[in-house]
Structures are given as C-alpha cells and as structure tokens.
Design goal:
The structure is a single chain. The chain is of the alpha/beta class. The chain has helices spanning 10-22, 77-88, 98-110, 122-137, 163-166, 177-180, 191-201, 230-240, 260-265, 291-294, 313-325, 328-352, 380-383, 388-400, 421-442; strands at residues 44-48, 51-54, 59-62, 115-119, 141-145, 183-186, 205-211, 224-225, 228-229, 244-249, 271-274, 285-289, 357-361, 364-368, 403-404. It contains 15 helices and 15 strands. Strand 10, helix 9 and strand 11 (271-274) form a beta-alpha-beta unit. The longest helix has 25 residues, at 328-352. It is globular and about 60 Å long. It binds pyridoxal-5'-phosphate. Pyridoxal-5'-phosphate binds at residues 67, 121-123, 126, 149-151, 162, 211, 216, 248, 250-251, 275, 285.
C-alpha cells in the first residue's frame, strides 16, 4: 500500500535502513515493522510515563505499552529504583535468591496456582507448560483455538493470532507436520467443536490451552451461554475426559485486573502461564498450577525444564516492584480510562460513519474495523473480515497527531496508570481526523 511520508521521521528512516541491513526486516519481533499499516517504524529513544519519544524528537502517547508489560507507565521511579538497587548487587548469579521466592509468592497470592516456576518469556512458559501437561498425562494431543497466540512455540503456531495473523502467514515453514500433528485447532467460543474433539479423541488429549480472554486477534471475551462462561465450559469438559485446562494469562494476567481474567470469571485452571506485567518491562514470565502437577518438574519430578537466566535478579526486582505498586486503585483508574476511551472512539467512528465493533476484557480493549452489519466478533474467522486499509488510515492519522497505536488491526490497545488527562485529551482530540481518514479509506 502507498502511505504518505510522515514529516519528522528522517532519523527513524535512516535507522530503519541501517537496521534492515543487519536484522531481517529491521526488527527483532515482526509486528514492530509496520508491515500491515505501511510506513516506517518509529525508533524509540526513550520513554517516560504515558509517552514514547522517538529518535526524531516526537512525543507520542503510547497505547502499546510494550505490548502489555508497562502497566504503571514507562520508567516508573520506584521500578527504576528497584532495578538500580538490584543491578548494584550483581546482575545474575545462577543460584537461588529470596526475591524469586517473593515474586512466586506474589503470583500465588493473586492467582489460583499453588506453585510457580519462573522463566524468561511467555513463549518459554507455554512451551514448558505443554511439556508438563503431556508428561503428566502421558497423552500427546493439545487443543488450541484459532487466533489465540501463545508465543512462537512450534506446536502452537498453527492458526496463531498476533504477528502470524497480522502478516497473513498461513502456517510457518520450519514447523514440521509431525510437530503440529497433535495440535487440534478449533474455533474460539465454539463449544460444539470442543465437544466433538473430545468425543473423537478424548483419551488422547493432554490439555486444552486458551488465552484466558484472547487479545491477539483483537479482544474477544469468552462467551457466556446459559450462565456458563467459555472458560468454565472448557475446564469442565477437559476434566470429564482426564485432560488438563491451561489458561494462558501472559497478556491478561495482572492487567485486566489484580487477578487477571481469573478475577473476572473465577475459573480455576489446572495450569497457567504468566508474563508481560509480572516482569515490569524486563524478560520475566512464569508458569504454575496445582502442586501435584508442578511436582512432576525436575528436580523433584522427571519432566525437565531449566534456564540460565530464569529468575534473573533484575527482572525479578522489576516484576516485584510492579506487582506491589499495582493496587486496586490502579485497576480502578485503568477501568475508568478504558471506558472513557472506548466511548470516545465509538463516538468518533459513529460520527464519521465507519462500521466497527469495540470489545473489551476488563480494561483491555480493541477496535474491530469489521463490515457494516457485524455486531460482535466471537472468533478469528469474524476478526479476519476487518478492513486493514481503514485501520492503516486511522493508525497513521493518529500517529501524525502524536498517538502511537498498535501497528496492526489484530492487536489490543494497552493503557497504563500514567495515562493522565493530558495524554487522554491528546487521544480524544486526534480521533475525529483519524475516523475521517478511516472513512475515506473504507469508502
Ligand atoms: C497470550 C500470550 N501468550 C504468550 C505470549 C508470548 O509471550 P512472549 O512474547 O513473552 O514470548 C504472548 C505474547 O504476546 C501472549 O500474548
């Protein structure tokens, strides 16, 4: 697509050219490349509170928040203080620390898990939890849902959301047929399909893994039918067949509320994965669950899992500080900010006549640029009906007004506690022009 050059991006453009020479696509994670919206990614020089500052000196209200981790905003002084203190005591020991125990305890305090193991990324958490589920049950098959993204774990890259959806990559070369042969991909919120899969393969299914509330195909809340939520249905069905229910709260955990999506629907999984917010902007993640399952991990059990930098003291310090600062007031403020923004975006798009659907799970929300007549997005198939051209026009208009949205129509919008009136006013003021741009692009 052709995108008008944005003034004031000369240094980012030069950096991007240099980056492309030394790194595939110039980025270290695909969605950062702006491929689906076009144009040059902004190279970030620093960030503070609700703002990113790019190389060219532009101040941008950040609605990506590092794809979720920056719940308190950038460079929160208490988090930076904790990190600096930790760094002065040494950056990695490869031996246990009290802070790791404290971080595990903070997670157990908020989430329905009895034990956790710390790892370095959400991908590592989901990869490890699958191995554990298969090791414990002695079964091979896994159910996942189309459009759910659980990191770039080979077995879970079948019909994944996030960058895989953004770049319209149908499957991923390098993942062998054998690797995904045991992955059953079903439509999200499709209870009949789940029932059929268990009827057909019940005694071979080790686990059902789902995003607790998907955020990687846009935000899709679990459906409620006859008072039973989709997560409760999955947990019940899995247990009936001796399979495990794994809830991936890498994105939702500690973000949509103090206890993540579990705090919203109360469904107790057998195993869970965490990441993003719990690392406070550093590489830290975790998986956890019932103690009798976690006890199968080495060194007590026989399922092997390990990591040189797992429980790294700096990441642990950042995560601990972040979780301790994430008070109920923070979540209350995020809920209010999210409700206000959702209303403002809806009003602007309605005024410009742009068909859309806005969905949320707690404060996490996204805007679907779906065709007129679509009133809800329950699954990935519906999400793919969106107009990427309308979103690209909307995105670039917002960027020109100093607002940094996710550079893909399939991603959630992330807020922080640092988004104050000044930041919100900038967003609200930018909306009418962006909605008009989206209207011309779709019309
Ligand atoms: C729900 C979910 N699970 C797992 C991951 C993978 O985490 P990471 O990027 O830290 O490997 C992500 C990343 O966006 C995610 O959103």
């Amino acid at each position: 697509m052709t995108v008008r050059p944005i003034p004031g991006t000369v240094l980012s453009e030069a950096a991007f050219e240099r980056a492309k020479g030394v790194t595939p696509g110039g980025v270290n994670s695909p969605v950062r490349a702006f491929r689906s919206v076009g144009g040059t990614p902004r190279f970030i020089a620093r960030a503070e509170g609700a703002y990113l500052y790019d190389l060219d000196g532009n101040e941008l209200v950040d609605l990506v928040c590092s794809w979720g981790p920056m719940l308190l905003g950038h460079a929160h002084p208490d988090v930076i203080g904790a990190v600096a203190d930790a760094a002065r005591r040494g950056t990695s020991y490869g031996a246990p620390t009290v802070a790791e125990v404290d971080l595990a305890a903070e997670i157990i305090d908020r989430m329905p898990v009895e034990q956790v193991r710390l790892v370095n990324s959400g991908t590592e958490a989901t990869m490890s939890v699958l191995r554990l589920a298969r090791g414990v049950t002695g079964r091979n098959k896994i159910i996942k849902f189309a459009g759910c993204y659980h990191g770039h774990v080979d077995a879970l890259l079948a019909a994944a959301g996030s960058g895989v959806a953004t770049l319209s990559i149908p499957g991923t070369p390098g993942v062998t047929d054998a690797t995904i042969a045991d992955t059953l991909v079903l439509g999200y919120n499709d209870r009949a399909a789940v029932g059929k899969a268990f009827t057909d393969f019940g005694d071979q299914i080790a686990a059902v893994i789902t995003e607790a509330a998907p955020g990687n195909m846009g935000v899709i809340p679990p459906s409620i039918e006859d008072g039973v939520g989709f997560n409760a249905f999955l947990a019940g069905t899995a247990r009936e067949h001796g399979a495990l229910f794994i809830s991936d709260e890498v994105m939702t955990g500690f973000r949509v509320g103090r206890s993540g999506q579990f705090g919203l629907d109360g469904v107790r999984p057998d195993l869970m994965t965490f990441g993003k917010v719990m690392g406070g902007g550093f590489p830290a993640a975790a998986f956890g669950g019932r103690a009798d399952l976690m006890q199968h991990l080495a060194p007590v059990g026989s399922v092997y899992q390990a990591g040189t930098l797992s429980g790294n003291p700096i990441a642990t310090a950042a995560g601990l500080a972040t979780l301790r600062l994430a008070t109920p007031q923070v979540y209350q403020q995020l809920n209010q900010t999210s409700a206000l923004l959702r209303a403002e975006v809806r009003a602007a798009l309605d005024a410009a006549g742009v068909p859309h659907v806005i969905q949320n799970a707690g404060n996490l929300f996204s805007v679907f640029f779906v065709p007129d007549g679509v009133t809800a997005v329950p699954d990935y198939a519906t999400a793919t009906q969106q107009s990427t051209a309308a979103y690209a026009a909307f995105f670039h208009s917002m960027l020109r007004s100093g607002v940094y949205l996710p550079p893909s129509v399939y991603e959630a919008w992330f807020l922080s506690a640092a988004h104050d009136d000044r930041a919100l006013n900038r967003i609200v003021d930018a909306l009418p022009a962006a909605a008009a741009a989206a209207a011309s692009a779709s019309g």
